[in-house]
Each structure stands twice: as structure tokens, then as C-alpha cells.
């Protein structure tokens, strides 16, 4: 079963329901894409990374949704629409609201840090790939983020990101007993999403 394209919402999105034989209610993976995948064509998202993986692997034991931003917009600007989409999915699908993972790439990571920190208790985990971590974390952000497991993946040859900035965020979260795993792919550049998923 291929992934579905849903356009009748404030943000159009890719959607894959949970497999019929999976345990329900099921987890939800909410994916926020990077800057180059903005536009008005959901097929752009299917070319690589997690959306391509889900499209080629479905049905899966979790619900998957990947909204798309219009050109020139950011996830921070559309935070309320992302949360509205999350609420709609939880209301309409067999989703366990205590098992929502926010996963993202690049621009999506900046949005995910903000959205997860601004909506404590809504996410059970955060997976950041090639994303700019916030250089400083406010006490309220820190309190929210230390409650959820975070996985960070970054390429050692990524010219767009500072490894030092990411390491500082990891250190800060670990100092307050946050659950953070940081994986550095030494030969990886910015576009490591396929590599992280194991089919790059």
C-alpha cells in the first residue's frame, strides 16, 4: 500500500495508516521536512529520507504523517497548524497519544525543537537529523526537552552545521539528566537522511 496524499487541511500532508495486523492504538511518527522540500507538491517529499522509506515499506506498525510547508515559510511560523494536524490525527486514527514521535530533517529540526519545547507532554521522543540545534536553551525549554528521549544525527562533513553547537546542546541536556543520544557520521555531509535510515 503506497502512502496517501491529503490536501484538505491547512498543511497538505503525506499519510500512511498503521498496518491492519499491528497493535492498536499505535504510535505516530510526525515528520517535518527540510528547506529544499517546501512547495506545493507532496511528491517532492517522496524522493528521499523518511517519507520515501515509509512509502516503500508500508504498511508499518505505526501511523506516519509528513506535512509540507509552502515556499518561504518555517515550521516555527506554522506551529499551531502542526499541533492542529496532530490533534486531528489523534482524533481520527487509532493513535496512542502517549507515543507520538516528532522526527525531522534540517529546517524541520529547528521547528521540532521549538514545537516540542512549547508543547510539553505532547511528544514521547524527538529524532533530529542534520538539524541546527538551538544555541541556548531557555529554562522552560530545557525543562520540557529533558523529559523526552532525543536522538541526534549529524554528518562530520556537514558544512551547514556546527558540530560544536550540537555538542553544547547535548552537554546541556545531559547535565540536567536529559536523555540524549548523539550519533556523528564522520564521512556524512548535510544530506545523511538515507544513510541514517540504512538505505543510502
TrEMBL record:
Gene3D superfamilies: alpha/beta hydrolase (3.40.50.1820). Keywords: Hydrolase, Signal. It comes from the Bacteria. InterPro entries: AB_hydrolase_fold, Plant_Biomass_Hydrol_Est, PLipase/COase/thioEstase. Signal peptide: none annotated. Residues 81-196 form the Phospholipase/carboxylesterase/thioesterase domain. The keyword Acetylation does not apply. Pfam families: Abhydrolase_2 (PF02230). This is Dienelactone hydrolase family protein. It comes from Calothrix parietina FACHB-288.
Amino acid at each position: 500500500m503506497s502512502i496517501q496524499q491529503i490536501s484538505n487541511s491547512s498543511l497538505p500532508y503525506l499519510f500512511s495508516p498503521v498496518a491492519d495486523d499491528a497493535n492498536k492504538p499505535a504510535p505516530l511518527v510526525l515528520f517535518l521536512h527540510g528547506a529544499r522540500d517546501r512547495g506545493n507538491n507532496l511528491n517532492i517529499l517522496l524522493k528521499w529520507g523518511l517519507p520515501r522509506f515509509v512509502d516503500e515499506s508500508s504498511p508499518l506498525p505505526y501511523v506516519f504523517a509528513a506535512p509540507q510547508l509552502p515556499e518561504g515559510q518555517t515550521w516555527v511560523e506554522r506551529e499551531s497548524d502542526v499541533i492542529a494536524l496532530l490533534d486531528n490525527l489523534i482524533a481520527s486514527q487509532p493513535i496512542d497519544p502517549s507515543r507520538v514521535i516528532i522526527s525531522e530533517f534540517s529546517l524541520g529540526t529547528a521547528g521540532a525543537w521549538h514545537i516540542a519545547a512549547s508543547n510539553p507532554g505532547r511528544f514521547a521522543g524527538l529524532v533530529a537529523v542534520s538539524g541546527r540545534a538551538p544555541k541556548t536553551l531557555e529554562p522552560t525549554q530545557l525543562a520540557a526537552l529533558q523529559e523526552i528521549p532525543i536522538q541526534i544525527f549529524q554528518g562530520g562533513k556537514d558544512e551547514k552545521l556546527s558540530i560544536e553547537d550540537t555538542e553544547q546542546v547535548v552537554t546541556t541536556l545531559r547535565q540536567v539528566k536529559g536523555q540524549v543520544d548523539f550519533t556523528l557520521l564522520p564521512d556524512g555531509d548535510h544530506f545523511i537522511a538515507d544513510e541514517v535510515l540504512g538505505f543510502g
